[in-house]
Structure formats: structure tokens, C-alpha cells
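so my prof wants the structure for this chain in the C-alpha cells format not the other one, which i didnt know existed until like an hour ago. anyway here's the sequence
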Amino acid sequence: MRQLRGFAAVGAENPSILILGSFPSAKSLERREYYGHERNHFWPLMGIILGFDPGAPYLERLGRLERAGIALWDVIAACEREGSLDQDIRGESANPLAEFIASRPTIERLGLNGGKAASAFVGLLAPSLGGLEIGKECPWTPPFSPRREILIARLPSSSPVPTRNFRKASDKLPAWSAFVSPTPRESRN
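here's what i got, hopefully its the right format
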């Protein structure tokens, strides 16, 4: 298997929200776009939440994220994998997330897009969080910034592969919407 490399972070330079995936799909790598598979639910979800056309050109969609204070990146920088399934990821190396987060004190909320992103992030930077429940936010004090608190949520994967509780984008929308656009009471549940 050959070594695959992911992308640089995109979106807002000083984001209030950071959304971390696991690693780009084969189609995303081919297109050189985050969430580049046409069936992935990420862009339709963001389009509904932020009010833009999810079929707009990629750079326009990134501009909408940037204006909303959202950045995208992946927990995994490089790995070996046949196909696109997270379960097939082998020999992974992580992105420098601690440095990225520490250098952006504007980050208030961190969304983990799916189970692999959540388990890799927790294993790398936040072992005290243990298993994260989908859709529930919890405060995290980064060990490298002990005076800071970031709200973390494990979000339903935007992957088009259905799970028992999240078959369609509409099933995922409440959790994603609550995370990206929380009401004051929801932001500290």
C-alpha cells in the first residue's frame, strides 16, 4: 500500500469553530477537496445550516465557511488505506493539532466528524475525555493551554454510509445544527 497524504487546514484563519474529520476519502483526494464525494452529507448539511447552495463551486463553499468562522482539517495527516473506509486506515500519522489549536485562541468549539476522528483525537490529545457520545458537548481544557476551555462534540459522521441511527443527512441535521449554530442554552449543555 502506498502512503496517502491529506490536506492543509482550510477556512477561517482564526476560527471560532474547528471541524476535524479523520482522513479524506479517495474521491476527496482525487478532487483535492474536503468532503469531495458527491454523496457525502457535509456540504448539504452546511448549506442548510449556513444558508448557501451546497452545489456551489468549492472555493465559494469554503468562503462561506470562512465567513462563518469555521475551519476544516483532519486528525490524520497521512496513512495507508485501500478505498475510503476509516476502518481500513493503517500506519497513520497525526496532524500537529496541538500547535494549530494553541496558535488559534479564537477556537471555542471543536467538532469531531465521526467515530474515527473522535477516537483518534481523544487518543492523541484528550484521553481524559474517554468515549464521546454523539451529539453531546463536553468541555475540554487542552493540556497545552490550561487556562482555556473548548467545547468538544462528537458529531454523526457526514459519510454517506448509513448507520443504525443516522441513515440520511436529515437524521444528522439536528446534531450538526446544534453544534454549528447553538442557542445560548444549548452551547453549555
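also thought this was worth mentioning. Confidence is low (pLDDT under 50) at residues 184-189.
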